[in-house]
TrEMBL record:
GO terms for biological process: coenzyme A biosynthetic process; pantothenate catabolic process. Residues 197-396 are annotated as: Phosphopantothenate--cysteine ligase. Its cofactor is FMN; Mg(2+). This is Coenzyme A biosynthesis bifunctional protein CoaBC. Catalyzes two sequential steps in the biosynthesis of coenzyme A. In the first step cysteine is conjugated to 4'-phosphopantothenate to form 4-phosphopantothenoylcysteine. In the second step the latter compound is decarboxylated to form 4'-phosphopantotheine. Pathway: Cofactor biosynthesis; coenzyme A biosynthesis. It comes from Methanomethylophilus alvi (strain Mx1201). CTP binds at D283, K293. Residues 192-394 form the DNA/pantothenate metabolism flavoprotein C-terminal domain.
Amino acid sequence: MHPSEEIYCDKSNRLSGKTIVLGITGSIAAVECFHLIRELIRNGAKVIPVMTPAAVKLVAPDAMEFASGVKPVTEMTGQTEHIKYLGDPSDADLFLVYPATANTISKMANGIDDTPVTTMATVALGSGIPVAVAPAMHGYMLGNPAVEKNLGVLASWGVNIIGPHTDENRARVASVSEVVSWAIKLLSHDDLRKKRILVIGGRSEEPLDSMRLITNRSSGLMAVTLAQRAFERGADVELWMGGGSVDVPDFIPVKRYETVGDLIGMLGSIDHDLVIVPAALADFTPEKKVEGKIPSGEGFTMSLKPVPKVLPLIRGKCQNVIGYKAESGLSRSDLVKKARGRLEEYDLMACVANDVDSAGKTSASMILVTRDEATDITGSKAAISDMILNFVAQRL
């Protein structure tokens, strides 16, 4: 057994049965291709590497063969590799160019096929196989009018442009995680396609003084995972994120809030088909924030006041809302009763009940509560996200 077979589908089967032809070009970002290939395989894909001469100078073909279990195409031969792998829509499911240099992008847009990758691109664009490119270049190169025009040409032909992410004159190629999510989005079921979904997550942080906060242990993992999974299922996703310890992927649009008051001030922009609210929000805030730092070493008393409940305000802006109800030490039946009470009080689509012990953990046991049913959803938070979105897809 080749080592690549040992990791097949060990993360998910969402790319199972899919073949991805990976075009590797001469950017230093090509060093990420080993990791990219392995991650695609871990989600079930078969990967066929194709390399330009410039890419071969940066990464060894043997390394790509070890990663994929397939000998890379480094030159066109009498085997007509371009026709063999991409000559018919049934041959491959996606032609992905990562990293895509300005040189390769421009050749693709102008029908020039003088490398194995550009020859593959010419065939894929002609045969109707889905194509995606992840541009990798300096920000000034990305801003070159010719490069901008050529990317526009490719986009007009239906080519999916993945990244890059710009910061002043710096342009970062899309991460491996982002490219894998795009592959899943393009190749797996898109039952949430064009649905506008807002996820509100993370923890609120109510200031006591200029340094201290009233907050909680929520990491924001549930919200980030829900947003990423919804993106992969075709939704137009937006994430509103409070505090947390989990990085938000670059490809998920995010707005930030700190306090419950901040979040309430954002609600006027809700215009979505669905809002999911796994956020851990404070119930109380100080009557008055202390300026500076509260002195230590002596007793201190502070009055708290309740903050407005956010769920009914969200429900007033959107017809379909899924809330969360976190409790501690309750039996299953009591937890369901609490969640259903919240669902009925605020007229929610559903309410996810969970124990507070799940905060910050990668897996959990939760209950998806509707008016008529209470379904246990257990496993990783990624798996739980999929179960929640399965429910959503049946009702939107």
